């Protein structure tokens, strides 16, 4: 099993009580909440934590993209990836992912990934996403065209990576007289493409298609939904006439391990509860702007839910759903093994720092996970 | 007398059209919320005119063709519809998003348009006069910000949508986003052509509009060559509902003057 250490880089010095008075930690949270001196230290800490993953034996590290939010300080994840390339020698670096529809010129994404791929001599994994709903408020991009732009940008980037340039691109959203990538990508045919998602039939059908076979990474979901979505992927592959490899199915979840379950709960509580109740507060209007999701699912959701993070979820609830794995190394291992048995999981992306969890606990968590959980998953 | 409905097919698009009354044609273009009810305001206009109230492509019970992707597309589509129905001497009345469509239509081809009435229209922008973000508001905030008199908002909030209405609300909202999300509620290429709208025009605005501030009434009146503006105190974004008597009387008077 491939194991990648991931963090969102939340802004931990956030005044949680004051921020809670705002509509959301996204888009409308005034940036006067951000203190550059503290923020600079945060970047230093997070890069140290991720770079330390190599020493601990992780296969890779993961970063990702979010905009105008205290939830994650990486509007440009490739900058962090670039720093990590210089701090590491062996680990893979996964950008999980870049939000393709948000840019007006996807060739810049193709170029940046090509640079990273060369800088790292082929250690880059490129995740492609649409961005979450709030990002359409933050970027101004019309959510009605989100799917169209995602697919066209994807096709353009892959063609730019794999075809001799210059060539011309005639699209609906993007038109270029010259597409001619300098540098070319280092890996042949191109960096692996992963699809991180909360799961939708459309995404799974597209990612599993025989001409793509992109690993599908289910993120931050109750274990029931993890199992359902990964098996949907496997079933979809069978319908396409092939058997999905374990390496095509991944799961990303917050993880905390300690000597006893009680200790794990106590130490993880503030971090987990702030992640789900403070950093991830998204009213419906931000989570699902019109066009971001299908009309049918929108109709189902309307009235039923007010958003996410709007009602307080205690640690116990998050553990019960299995959205986060918290306990002794044996307990956590048992939960991952159960999912592996039911889904043939091949990629696991533990988020070992989450919410306000401080450096010392995050570091100890990484060490214990690497020493007492990871070796068993490799067997 | 009741209004009648029919489906008009223009190219590959079925349009749901409501009709009532006799006289010179009045074509009413609805706002982003669509036509959820037949309004008393419509009856007043229909008393003296042949009123036509279509659902835009992508709204209400009309088809939602993929190829309609912008407000200029909708405006061109209505030019096709007008020719197909062979309407002429039209009094064009548009509210909000529909006012924007009406203006785009009139700058493109006004040969069949006799007058233009814009009720709190979108379509142009005054820098640093922010418009409300109804994509970010909750349903309650949206209802409260639509009206000055909160009694109207309470009524709107108390309404429980049935399955069909819910479907139409989602459809309207999706089409609204498709047409108006970016640039938000305006077309940067519209204002510079408004001098071509040479027919008599009337601009009507609620002084307390929290979606499109009443300051816009002045810019429209300035840019349209033959326009006059009326700002209504104690009135929000839906003057034809909140001050229906006054708005209907004003439009009827304006149309009489135009036709005299």
Question: How would you describe what is shown here?
Answer:
The complex is a heterodimer of chains A (379) and B (260). With 379 residues, chain A is α/β, with parallel strands linked by helices. Chain A is built from 15 helices and 13 strands. In chain A, helix 3 runs parallel beside helix 4 (107-119) and helix 7 crosses helix 8. The longest helix of chain A has 21 residues, at 36-56. The mean pLDDT of chain A is 96. The model of chain B has no long low-confidence stretch (mean pLDDT 97). In chain B, helix 1 links the parallel strand 3 and strand 4 (50-54). Chain B is α/β, with parallel strands linked by helices. The A-B interface holds A 27-28, 136-137, 140-145, 283-286, 289-291, 295, 298-299, 302-303 and B 135-138, 166-167, 169-171, 173-174, 176-178, 181-182, 184.
Radius of gyration of chain A: 20 Å
The end-to-end span of chain A amounts to 8 Å
Biggest interface pair, residues each?
A: A-B, 22 and 17 residues
Assembly status = heterodimer
If helices are DSSP runs of H or I spanning 4 or more residues, what is the number of helices of chain A? 15
Pairing-aware structural class of the strands and helices of chain A?
Answer: alpha/beta
User: What series of H and E elements makes up the topology of chain B?
Assistant: EEEHEHEHEHHHEHEHH
Helix percent of chain B reads: 25-40%
Distance between the termini of chain B: 27 Å
Largest sheet of chain A: 8 strands, parallel, barrel
Beta-strand residue fraction of chain A: 15-25%
Percent in strands of chain B? 15-25%
The spatial strand order of the largest sheet of chain A comes to 1-2-3-4-7-8-9-13
**Share in helix of chain A:** 40-55%
- Poorly predicted runs of 5 or more residues of chain A: none
For the CA atoms, what is the radius of gyration of chain B?
A: 17 Å
Q: Outline of chain B, from the CA principal axes? A: globular
Shape of chain A: globular
Strands in their spatial order, largest beta sheet of chain B:
1-2-4-3-5-6-7-8
